[in-house]
């Protein structure tokens, strides 16, 4: 069985609810996954928008997610104790920051990408940013799953 990633907040290709955007409550949507391969020792998650005017914009990077976890609750980036570590996103924050595309720029696609890793943790400083964290994670990737949501400001 291939690894899967879903959200109770939105289905594949659907619009993200306003509360999961910077124009709403800026809450990280809940996520659930299944089918991690044998040998998985941790997970990483990134959220990126390839439709941004200046190129791919990274909204979230979570790493050192325990292999025993089967998802992240809503607002996992602000949950006390046991929360994963977060890389600095392209807004400059070490947390999830939801969609905020330019008004009238059209539909943006937000790719939630989860990777199962063969190591229990990554020795990456939070300030390193999402791209270096993801590059390191890819060296240890056993499987990957994705979920895409959309958002547009008319």
From TrEMBL:
Tell me yes or no: is Coiled coil among this UniProt entry's keywords.
no
Where does the signal sequence lie? Answer: none
Q: Which UniProt keywords apply?
A: Protein kinase inhibitor
Query: Is Repressor found in the keyword set?
Result: no
Family matches, as SUPFAM superfamilies: PEBP-like
The GO terms this record gives for MF are: protein kinase inhibitor activity
Name of protein: Raf kinase inhibitor-like YbhB/YbcL family protein
Q: Which organism is it from?
A: Pseudorhizobium tarimense
């Amino acid at each position: 069985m291939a690894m899967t990633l879903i959200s109770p907040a939105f289905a594949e290709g659907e619009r993200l609810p306003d509360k999961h955007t910077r124009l709403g409550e800026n809450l990280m949507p809940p996520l659930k996954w299944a089918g991690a391969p044998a040998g998985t020792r941790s997970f990483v998650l990134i959220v990126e928008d390839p439709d941004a005017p200046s190129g791919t914009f990274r909204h979230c990077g979570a790493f050192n997610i325990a292999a025993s976890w089967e998802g992240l609750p809503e607002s996992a980036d602000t949950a006390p104790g046991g929360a994963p570590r977060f890389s600095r996103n392209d807004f400059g924050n070490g947390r999830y920051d939801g969609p905020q595309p330019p008004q009238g720029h059209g539909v943006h696609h937000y790719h939630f990408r989860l990777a199962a890793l063969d190591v229990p943790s990554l020795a990456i400083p939070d300030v390193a940013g999402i791209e270096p964290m993801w590059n390191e994670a890819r060296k240890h990737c056993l499987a990957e799953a994705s979920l895409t949501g959309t958002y547009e400001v008319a």
